[in-house]
């Protein structure tokens, strides 16, 4: 592959990966405005975010088998078309319950992009480059938290929150046209792949029983949940607790994203000297310590606006370092069923994230304690899974098999 083709392919895959995060981040500054417009509370509006996460998780399990059966592009066309239709529905929405439902369906369409992009990384690039490519995708994905909330804040204050969904629809249309005309099919349809429930369940079962998969997928998912918790809680913490404006919130969100994105790129340098397994271990230890410190400090009121921003920055750095390595190690054992493995991995990450964000809406607390508390729980659980799973890998596969699966 030429350098030009390499760059263009990564850029397209990155755009697909970024569609979901843009759909989340751009409307966050509009939470208070949406609440006023639909005569509800900000906590209720956050449920539309939770429903989006649930839709992403459910859609992962749908698109995985479809990608392995019909190739990578046809299911992508369907998903992006669903996204376009529901974006129009969100624009005309006048009821919070309808918005929650539409966001769920919109997410089902959006997740086709994320599943396809992850699967095509496994199709197109050599195995030992996967962690690097995932980190590059995160770099492109970084445009979302740096641009989307800031733009969303200005759009909301200038034209109202409804216009955000026009912008998202236009973005999806541009991506769809790019995929149709410029992204080659990376996997030929497999007519032998059955879409009956029994074989699909067996396929997912085969993937999840692999010790390397369930260790790094679950540990990574619990760590990654901190990002979802932050996204769901940040409008409440910054705009209602610390009383910042929608525009200021957008800038804070963009600044904090530097931690997540920057760490993912530092990871590329670390991979030159350390294995993915080693990086995951250190990142998760730091995440656990930071999360506990965040919880204790939040409970006793030690952190003001600056302190909350600072400790959240460290948390996001840990997630940004850990996630590319966990994803690469999870998918490393799979080839012909990479679509199923990618879908299951995404469903686990998004499903767990959705469950954690529901806690933010349920607590309805005007403080950072719920955010810090849930972050602490997920980080600790992720650490326990990693400790247990590494022992299972060594026992089931053997030291040589475990080492063979590591991505350097």
TrEMBL record:
The lineage of its organism: Bacteria, Pseudomonadati, Bacteroidota, Sphingobacteriia, Sphingobacteriales. This is Multidrug effflux MFS transporter. The keyword Cytoplasm does not apply. Residues 9-394 form the Major facilitator superfamily (MFS) profile domain. Belongs to the major facilitator superfamily. Bcr/CmlA family. It is found in: Cell membrane. The keyword Transport applies. It is a multi-pass membrane protein. The chain crosses the membrane at residues 47-64, 76-94, 100-121, 133-155, 161-183, 213-237, 249-271, 278-296, 302-322, 343-363, 369-388. Pfam families: MFS_1 (PF07690). Keywords: Cell membrane, Membrane, Transmembrane, Transmembrane helix, Transport.
